[in-house]
């Protein structure tokens, strides 16, 4: 499983540990990934591996359904695009 956020696309960054003597050694900055369950109005609970920032973004936008509806496809990862189609199809079945 990749260390990449499904919603924001944030991944591992690289940099240096810098000692007091200014010796630089390679290090990795890992994203703050969390395995979380978000509640969709039409699908129920959905398990996602996302960053803490993505969790805050989803909550700020009004939940996963509103976030997916308002975000253009070009800004979403393929995994989240599939989820968006599932949510839209379930919403269409529920309303029609």
Structure description:
The protein is of the alpha+beta class and 96 residues long. The chain has a domain at 33-95. 36% of the residues lie in helices and 29% in strands. It has helices at residues 52-61, 64-70, 78-95, and strands spanning 13-18, 24-29, 33-40, 44-51. The strands form two sheets. It has a two-stranded antiparallel sheet. Strand 1 and strand 2 (24-29) form a beta hairpin. The protein is elongated, with a radius of gyration of 17 Å. It starts with 12 loop residues before the first strand and ends with a helix.
Task: Annotate the secondary structure layout.
Elements: E1 13-18, E2 24-29, E3 33-40, E4 44-51, H1 52-61, H2 64-70, H3 78-95
Antiparallel strand pairs: 1-2, 3-4
Distance between the termini: 37 Å
Strand order of the largest sheet: 1-2
The radius of gyration is 17 Å
SSE-based structural type: alpha+beta
Would you list the SSEs in sequence order as H and E? EEEEHHH
Give me the count of strands.
Answer: 4
The major sheet is characterized as: 2 strands, antiparallel
Give the overall average pLDDT: 93
Q: What is the count of DSSP helices, taking H or I runs of 4+ residues? A: 3
Measured by DSSP, the beta-strand proportion falls in 25-35%
Features:
elongated, alpha+beta, two-stranded antiparallel ribbon, 3 helices, 96 residues
Summarize the structure.
By secondary structure, the chain is of the alpha+beta class.
């Amino acid at each position: 499983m990749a260390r990449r956020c499904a919603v924001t696309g944030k991944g591992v960054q690289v940099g240096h540990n810098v000692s007091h003597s200014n010796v630089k050694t390679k290090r990795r900055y890992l994203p703050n990934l969390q395995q979380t369950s978000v509640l969709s109005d039409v699908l129920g609970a959905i398990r996602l591996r996302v960053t803490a920032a993505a969790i805050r973004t989803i909550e700020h936008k009004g939940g996963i359904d509103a976030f997916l509806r308002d975000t253009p496809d070009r800004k979403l990862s393929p995994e989240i695009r599939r989820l968006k189609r599932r949510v839209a199809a379930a919403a269409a079945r529920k309303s029609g």
